[in-house]
Amino acid sequence: MKTVYIFLCAAVLFASCKKNYLNIVPTDRLSDAAILADSSLFEDYVINRYLGVVLQDKEGEGTPPGFGRGFEYSMWSSITDESIYNNDDNSWLIVRGQLAPENTGIAGTLWGRSYRSIRECNWALTNIGTVSMSVGHKQRLLGELRFIRAFRYQDLIRNYGGIVMMGDRVIDLDSNMQDPSLYVRSSIKDCISYAATELDSAAQDLPLDNDGTWALGRATKGAALALKARLLLYAASPLYGVGTWQDAATAAQAVISLNKYSLDPNYGSLFLNSSSGEIIFERMYTIGARHVCLEIANGPNGYDGWAGNTPLQNVVDAYQMNNGKDITDPASGYDSTNPYVNRDPRFYSTILYNGATYRGRQVQCYTPGGLDSKDGPSNWNTTKTGYYLRKYMDDSNPIDNPWNVAGLQPWIYFRYAEILLDYAEAQNEAAGPDGTVYSAINQIRTRAGMPNLPAGLSQAQMRTAVMHERQVELAFEEHRFYDVRRWKIADSTENVPAFGINVTLSGGTYGYSRIVALSGRLFTSKEYWLPIPRSEIQASNNQLQQNTGY
């Protein structure tokens, strides 16, 4: 079965017996003519365009969506109130409000890599007509290219706002770069409208299913419709304000109406199962290929892990008790001296805490003497927050010396629960908390083992419930960064200290005290959008307009 990770190579060609050592045909690439002359090579070229969506840049630089830079470095969660990256990795400057065009931290490659991918898609779309293949096959590849291009535009829009729209142009990097039209930024409304229209076309051309000829990881009709639903949800949100909630609800309903996807019965194992019926679009990381395994990157130091992305008390506090009440509710039953008992079951699938059972023993974050505390081995890899990440961790993979272990591990871009949450939010804003809103949310809560929402909520109360549900259901899945911005609540959520917990053991009794795990968190209004890197502005001869405030 063909996968989405194919690298092209060619043999050295000898034109004649006369040697010219300065005229060498590269052995690591194929010519445009060779690709266009062979339908299989052309399809491989299209498949390789997924690498612009899901893989790090050359030499490991950049921060692609999904598990940070190849499982080893900071995830996007660590520039939110979900976690901090234990050893910085250029993430702390973002949460401390120090973003600048000259210093973009882990967000620095988004602009350049997105436009590179768009240019590559445009080349294929421009030339596909000359490739000899069946009409049906060509139609699928057209849909695939439009989806990938729209995905790249989504990434640009949600990070920078209105951006430069390239249409179908293939830019000559040697001669066309000073064309002023290359640097005119379109409105957010026009950008989203273009991408949504492209996704409508892609959805018509793409297959409904991944099967023996259309491998897992390649786009389907559902993937195109899911991306459109997300874009239109963003468009209607307060930060954007260029779309309607009804359009967003309709777009989410289109995915639901495919009757193809369903909630996985097991929330915890969902993130290890690439064949789950909940997954709409995914990337499957091959263990041992160009990255370090999640387990060693994020595991506790007492297990020989490196701590990595360590959850904050901020997100721990968001998990309700299993009776559906917030821990701040006096009637919830929450006990601050035994804080991890009877919580939302999703908490136990997401976060490792002091006393959690993990790989044959209990996690020991306490001092003095805890194996996973600063008193344990490799104390430079000890959590600063008192927690470790559980989500995505596969216990069948070793922590110690995990390289070159066979297997696949999915990063999920779209799953059915997100679509239900998209629908619930949009429908509540468009029509209030009707029965379909309750149904969407309660399906997710039932799967999690949580009680239904109480009846009779107002629109504002349902809005709060939806925000909460997104926070815990989608934790560490790269939604929080964008959600708090599109809702325009980041000035509240991101200006709260990065809290952790200090656990002590004395006389057989645990004590818990809140601490500040990372000082100096700061968010200002300009940071609702990222700065365009200064190098990109300079490359345009300062014709490209920078985002306000930078």
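The above is record 1. Record 2 follows with the same two-line structure.
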Amino acid sequence: MAQAQKALAREVHNPAVSVDWERVAYLLHVSRQMDEVEETRLVPEKQVLYQFSARGHDLAQILLGSQLTHRHDAVCGYYRSRPALLAIGVPLEEALAGPLARDGGYSSGRDIGVVFNYPNPNGPSALPMCGGVGTQYTPSTGWAQAIEYRRTVLGETDYEGAIAVALGGDGSVASNGFWSALTIATTQKLPVLFYIEDNGFGISVRSHVQTPGGNIAANLASFGGLKILEGDGTDPEEAARLTEEAVRFVREERAPLLLRLRVPRLCGHSAQDTQGYKSEAEIAAEKARDPLPRLQNFLVPAVFTADAWDAIRQRAADDVAAALERALARPQPDPSTLTRHVFSEAASHGVQAVQTKGGLAAEGHVLPKGSATPRPSGPRINMAAAIRRTLEHELAVNPRMVLFGEDVGPKGGVHSVSQGLQARFGEARVFDTSLSEEGIIGRAVGMALAGLMPVPEIQFRKYADPAVEQLNDCGTIRWRTRNRFAAPMVVRMPGGFFKCGDPWHSQTNEVQFVHAIGWHVAVPSNAEDAVGLLRAALRGNDPVIFFEHRAMLDHGWARRPYPGDDYVLPFGKARTVREGRDITVVTWGAMVERCEQAADLAAKESGRSVEVIDLRTLSPWDSEAVLESVRRTHRCLVVHEDNGTAGFGAEILAVVGRECFLDLDAPLERLTMPDIPSPHNPILLEAAVPSPERIAARIDEMVRF
């Protein structure tokens, strides 16, 4: 097609919109060919096990992807977002190999084929998608906040003009993540485009059940700080104009915008969905809105001849067929690699295997080397002061570190741990957030993916529950993207009893995060260990739950001299608090002090020699230290504050029972809280939490067995 004819067509249709219509037409045909071959061949052959067609959504997405040209742009989509990914440059073979679950590419068969990721080094990236509805929104705002941080605080001029795009369907606007992201983007004035494809259905649920009146744009008309556009996503001219206007606004104004485009879903929710909930008239009406023939009518003959259109369609078919053959020729994934990339592999494989994108390591950011040797100086300080001093030093040496959460700013945290940090480092680096744990952790995910070291605080352990989906998804990023992405962060999480208890502020349940794939878990019992473990986490390359026990933050027993600004305590190294011959007691957190007291009681009252081991970290945990001790003492008691059933003590004793069965002189035992929430009354609390007296009595019973 002659360039003059193309230019004339653009001028006739809309002189303000610049679109490469030939590329749009080609990619639309590519997307349709991919959907068709999956639906008619690969799904029936059971070579593709999950299939989500994008027919009807495809034109609008391609127009969106074509506008994402900045190398620091990022889009986070969902299971129907393949056309947008094709438009930002995902190779055709990769787009087909993913659904086939073949080796290589963005997952290598670990995740379902429609959950994409694309760490593009020279252009816009696709952040790791998740299977959960609405999970894309808060990480997108985190990416946008990281853009602004790197642009304004770090002075990285190449981030000027970059934006984040959260791409979702109308069903997802009912999710917690959507509303949390709106709050973050508008209160912080972040460059985020909320791109909502409204097809009228969330699987089978109609839009009016998701949103009053079925129109999220109308409902948000008075939402502060949010510009709104809406229109027909099947009309090539209107969709192109609105998309270009939306992207230009977000780039230039550095502010959020919501664009709602009406599109038909010319298919079921997935290949298994028969759409029995739609009438024949509804299906016919949707088919009449198919954007493919509308694009043809728009371009032929104004831009292309009919022969040129057919040539584009044939080229797309040929390219898809060739890409499919290459994808089918790929081998199946190697089962021997299945357990790789749960965590960073620098230590376990001897060579640095750094993720392509995310965290400090991916960009070669180097922090000072630490020392495993403490150099204590000064008076004994409490754990809160020790954590604060560590955070202060690491903020000073790492300009990419940011600290945030509810009340962490001027108030200094409800436990006073972050007191004074905002005054020293400013609101851009230490800041308060809205009251949304989903938003706190989801935002941290996006920041980490964008190369920062986020340190979010969850005010109390129980309050993490609304963020569990983001926490779980974050931990699996490295594994499910096959080390293409990772989101290292340190989540500070106070919990446990303090003077009294209650079901809302005193929960521990640390085992939940040990069971969450991809998370390291630290539970320090004293100020020195807190410093070393926190610094190791802040300089590491994996996400970490850093559990701060409320009872120990200002406890006299937990006070220690500050061990130095370079003290780093490796994870997975237990400490033998007290050596003994008769029994091994394994514990962590606030129970370490009580087990020491119990050991004193057992020695005084019964002459027992008790070895007490403080694990310090639960993921990983030092099984070697425990097993070596049990082989000498021939008895093992685990004491923890968490509930007994399915608590982490069960895991420890399972390993001890397997490895030390022939060494044991008594049954393995646990002493824990009963299976109840933490009670409020101090008398009830003491009856629930293992006491030194009860621990000592159990020690005596086991030694006398």
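The CA atoms of residues 385 and 417 lie 7 Å apart.
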